[in-house]
Write a structure and sequence with these properties.
473 residues; mainly alpha; Rossmann fold; Glutamyl-tRNA Synthetase, domain 3; Helicase, Ruva Protein, domain 3; 4 domains; three-stranded antiparallel beta sheet; 20 helices; elongated; ligase
Length: 473
């Protein structure tokens, strides 16, 4: 049932803290976040930590850290399922009292034997309802000293039907569903039950999650109905595949979201790339976070699996680097240098010089790591490749380089125009063409033969550094 216009959209991201969070996982946060923001709704973070043995605080921290870096801010939470056990047990007792839940004393060994018999008969393995109470049915004697599981009485006959916002109409026969265990022998509720109580208590209107949950949905809808409530709108997202066409996972080489941050990708680039990995707005490939929020709806979610492509990610990242704010890039480059233990002059830590350097070099980079590599010529010694230097810095060129150094040292002002004029005078005097002088100068001063416009690059150095590097060989 679609909420009315006056209903506040409420979405959630509900990860399990049982390992690091990769791009495939975080897309299941991006879409509900974007949908909530597009509809002036609320986005809730819920940690499904009932798998106590595998859950860890470290995994929780990485989830929150990754979301914070990507700017996927939550309005409520994080809520932890393990802190809500009393609430789940209270709802369980209500369902028991209403006859929707019953104790089942079938042992694990009996269940295994039942499955084996069913599979031998080429039947679907399923619980056979031995302990399900029915009018006029004689239940087996309760075994002594056995704690039962609690099972949900799934409706018999009819179908569970919902209009999935990605997959369209889905209909599952109730006869395909056996009676789900919703509490273990120690009384702790199981996943499918906890999810329903959480979605009810948090007034979730839209559940946007991976399609590995499709099989859970009919069971959850039946629990909603038993509680007398309408289920939320569902949108089940196709899987994200890795470059080999396998489901993205740690086992198949997926990287933690925070590793992309450490590799210097801009958060907005990752958000843009992930959004297009299963959603589209016409042919738009590059867009801002604001545009994503403005455009996002559930009608343009893709129906087929999205495939991760590192080359495409780098291309998207390059487009975002080109338009990124230079002052923001400067602060990120400083962080990169600090993490490497680079001594950064005070002159670059304040003022606009580092931002100007970023503006000059950012078009050549996909990440701030690459940008920090390029700009390292300004904060440390350079080591030009010996073979290139020997080929370019010839005896015929050395006098011109020395003459240029003298002119640069004597310039009344130190800026791009003045440096350019010094080059032109030296070229005219020596009878050389620009590459014959510019390439050896780049190698000596910058440590590499290719850079942006040489006058612009040199003007951002301290004059003394340029002159010294030109004269020291």
């Amino acid at each position: 049932m679609e909420p009315t216009v006056s209903t506040t959209v409420r979405t959630r991201f509900a990860p399990s803290p049982t390992g690091f969070i990769h791009l495939g996982n975080i897309r299941s946060a991006l879409y509900p976040w974007a949908f909530a923001r597009a509809n002036q709704g609320a986005f809730i973070l819920r940690i499904e930590d009932t798998d106590v043995e595998r859950s860890s605080q470290e995994a929780v921290d990485v989830i929150i850290e990754g979301m914070k870096w990507l700017g996927l801010d939550h309005d409520e939470g994080p809520f932890f399922q393990m802190q809500r056990m009393d609430r789940y047990k209270a709802v369980l007792q209500d369902l028991v009292a209403q006859g929707h839940v019953y104790p089942c004393y079938m042992s694990t060994q009996e269940l295994d034997a039942l499955r084996e018999r069913q599979m031998a008969n080429k039947e679907k393995p399923r619980y056979d309802g031995t302990w399900r109470p029915e009018a006029g049915k004689q239940l087996p004697p309760v075994p002594e000293g056995v704690k039962p599981v609690l099972r949900f009485k799934n409706p018999i006959g009819g179908s569970v039907v919902w209009e999935d916002k990605v997959k369209g109409r889905i209909e599952i026969s109730n006869d395909e569903l056996d009676d789900l265990v919703i509490a273990r022998p120690d009384g702790t509720p199981t996943y499918n039950f906890c999810v329903v109580v959480d979605d009810l208590d948090m007034a979730i209107t839209h559940v946007i999650r991976g399609d590995d949950h499709v099989n859970n949905t009919p069971r959850q809808i039946n629990i909603f109905k038993a509680l007398g409530k309408e289920p939320p709108v569902y949108a089940h997202l196709p899987t994200v595949l890795n470059e080999q066409g396998e489901k993205m996972s740690k086992r198949h080489g997926a990287k933690a979201v925070t590793q992309y941050r450490d590799e210097g990708y801009l958060a907005d680039a990752i958000v843009n790339y992930l959004a297009r990995l299963g959603w589209s707005h016409g042919d738009d490939e590059i867009f801002s976070r604001q545009q994503l929020v403005e455009w996002f709806n559930l009608d343009h979610l893709g129906k087929s699996a999205g495939q991760f492509d590192e080359a495409k990610l780098r291309w998207v990242a390059q487009q975002h680097m080109k338009t990124a704010d230079d002052a923001v890039l400067a602060s990120l480059v400083l962080q990169q240098w600090q993490s490497r233990g680079v001594a950064v002059p005070a002159s670059l830590q304040q003022g606009d010089t580092l931002a100007a350097m970023c503006a000059l070099f950012k078009d050549r980079c996909a990440t701030t790591v690459e940008l920090a590599d390029w700009l390292s010529m300004y904060v440390g010694a350079v080591q030009p490749p010996a073979d290139e230097l020997a080929a370019q810095f010839t005896d015929a060129v050395k006098p011109a380089v020395a003459a240029l150094a003298a002119r640069l040292k004597a310039l009344p002002t130190w800026d791009k125009a003045a440096v350019s004029a010094a080059f032109k005078e030296t070229l005219t005097e020596a009878g050389l063409k620009m590459p014959q002088l510019a390439i050896p100068v780049r190698l000596l001063v910058c440590g590499r033969a290719q850079t942006p416009s040489v006058d612009a690059v040199l003007a951002l150095f301290d004059r003394e550094v340029v002159v010294q590097r030109l004269l020291e060989t």
